[in-house]
Write a structure and sequence with these properties.
Layout (H helix, E strand, L loop, with lengths): L6 H21 L1 H8 L6 H30 L7 H23 L5 H20 L1
Helix pairs in contact: 1-3, 1-4, 2-3, 4-5
Length: about 130
């Protein structure tokens, strides 16, 4: 199998892996929210951080829906440059989110991961 023909399955697998990690973070967000707060926090602080994380994860899931529809409809499936960059962005996003999940990084780091991985991927999608 040539490199060009292996980009489509690689892109699909990294996209789905990234999506699964985001869903896992969404389901177990209680631990992530607690990692964002100081040792002694109020219920109001907890609900504020929980809302911020839910918004971030919801935006991520919405953009995943847009990207999956475009990919599965064939709009961006066979664009090699976009597939290569998307695979790299989703692979790096998956690794960074695994660190976010397992190392319990603060919630503000999620926005940095989101911004880096999405902005590069969307820039190439628009300009391709």
């Amino acid at each position: 199998m040539s490199v060009v023909s292996s980009l489509v399955p690689a892109r699909f697998l990294t996209l789905i892996a990234h999506l699964v990690i985001v869903i896992i973070i969404f389901w177990s967000r209680e631990n992530s929210v607690r990692a964002c707060l100081p040792l002694d926090y109020t219920n109001q602080e907890y609900s504020l951080e929980d809302t911020r994380l839910v918004v971030a994860l919801s935006v991520t899931l919405g953009l995943f829906a847009v990207e999956l529809v475009g990919f599965l409809c064939g709009i961006s499936m066979f664009n090699n440059n976009q597939a290569l960059l998307s695979t790299g962005c989703h692979a790096s996003g998956s690794v960074a989110l695994l660190f976010f999940l397992f190392e319990q990084w603060t919630c503000s780091i999620y926005w940095w991961i989101f911004g880096f991985c999405r902005s590069v991927s969307k820039y190439v999608t628009v300009n391709a």
